[in-house]
């Protein structure tokens, strides 16, 4: 190997999966320095995203699971054969409350003591955030996780909205700084609420929230966004609701923000809208429509991925994963998990570290065992 040029060695290492790279760190100090170099880490992540073929991370009430699977071939194979349960670092499993989100191979988890945990299952690094206790406010707290490309840092949003107050506050944790800051949101005094963690798209976190208008005794929905670059909150308008329709969850399709609208008239259907040009309300476009007679139920639909052939991967009813062929209006169950899927997201492994080589405080970990379910 000594005769190989630096460029050749780097090219070989860049093509390796994460578990192999972790072992390569122990070959020599030179390789350790190369693999931990921020430029190498970013390039490896970029290549991993390009060749990722459908790894999912599934959150349930009983734990976190990986579905290590090529979703492009899922029409011919059952995903359940590839679902692996992850063992948490140390003895944290009893403390896990909810999977909040994933970004670049890092996972954010809410613990039962209201602390938050950042974890890279591939490298086994983890970090319990300092002083990150969430103050509950009667609804699931406004929280989320994403990447700030301006400061090259990962940020966690925590703390609930203070109800019946004209000024609401959230706390933002910056991983590189290892500290929290407070950001205020100025609203008009009505009550607000949200049930789901933020959706991260194009450097911005999004929450669909509802707002009570006490004077009119009505309730309306809209989107709150937080740009992680300038840490400013803004409102994003939803597509105009048609009569008899109800707005559903937010999601990401092909890198674009999307939302589902439901109607239980005419046997029931669900429209999927995508914001083609981010920030322009008029760019909301109805992509397609799901029929209840095809899916069997419209309850808890979540769009997970768009495949290269144009098919969609869906989670329905919390247990089943479906492959939906929009062109031919066909649907196939590719997974019947024995556990309830509370959250499901596309996932890519990375060598992003929470340890000392990136300037972050390292937490000792033990090897993460993966168990087939």
TrEMBL record:
Top-level division of the source organism's lineage: Eukaryota
F-box domain location: 1-43
Annotated Pfam families: F-box, FBA_1
InterPro entries noted in UniProt: F-box-assoc_dom_typ1, F-box-assoc_interact_dom, F-box-like_dom_sf, F-box_dom, SCF_F-box_component
Record Gene3D superfamilies: 1.20.1280.50
NCBIfam families: F_box_assoc_1
Protein name: F-box domain-containing protein
Annotated organism of origin: Kingdonia uniflora
Biological classification of the source: Eukaryota, Viridiplantae, Streptophyta, Embryophyta, Tracheophyta
């Amino acid at each position: 190997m000594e005769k190989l040029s630096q460029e050749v060695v780097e090219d070989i290492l860049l093509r390796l999966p994460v578990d192999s790279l972790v072992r390569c760190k122990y070959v020599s100090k030179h390789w350790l320095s190369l693999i931990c170099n921020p430029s190498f880490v970013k390039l490896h992540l970029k290549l991993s995203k390009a060749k990722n073929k459908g790894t999912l991370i599934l959150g349930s009430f009983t734990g976190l699971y990986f579905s290590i699977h090529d979703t492009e071939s899922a029409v011919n194979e059952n995903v359940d054969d590839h679902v692996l349960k992850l063992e948490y670092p140390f003895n944290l499993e009893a403390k896990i409350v909810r999977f909040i989100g994933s970004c670049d191979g890092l996972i954010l988890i809410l613990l039962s003591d209201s602390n938050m945990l950042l974890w890279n299952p591939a490298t086994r690094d983890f970090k319990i955030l300092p002083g990150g206790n969430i103050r509950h406010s009667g609804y699931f707290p406004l929280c989320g996780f994403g990447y700030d490309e301006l400061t090259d840092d990962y940020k966690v949003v925590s703390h609930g909205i203070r109800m019946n107050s004209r000024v609401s506050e959230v706390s933002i944790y910056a991983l590189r700084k290892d500290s929290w800051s407070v950001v205020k949101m100025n609203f008009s005094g009505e009550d607000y609420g949200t049930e789901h963690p933020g959706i991260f798209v194009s450097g911005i976190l999004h929450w669909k929230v509802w707002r009570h208008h006490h004077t009119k005794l009505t309730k309306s929905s809209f989107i709150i966004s937080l740009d992680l670059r300038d840490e400013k909150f803004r409102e994003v308008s939803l597509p105009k609701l048609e009569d008899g329709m109800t707005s559903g969850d937010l999601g990401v399709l092909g890198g674009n923000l999307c939302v589902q609208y439901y109607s239980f008239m005419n046997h029931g259907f669900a429209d999927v809208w995508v914001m083609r040009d981010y920030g322009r309300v008029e760019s909301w476009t109805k992509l397609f429509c799901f029929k209840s007679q095809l899916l069997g139920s419209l309850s808890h639909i979540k769009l997970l991925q768009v495949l290269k052939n144009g098919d969609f991967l869906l989670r329905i009813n919390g247990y089943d994963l479906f492959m939906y062929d929009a062109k031919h209006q066909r649907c196939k169950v590719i997974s019947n998990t024995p556990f309830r899927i509370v959250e499901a997201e596309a996932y890519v492994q990375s060598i992003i570290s929470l340890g000392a080589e990136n300037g972050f405080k390292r937490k000792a970990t033990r090897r993460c065992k993966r168990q087939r379910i």
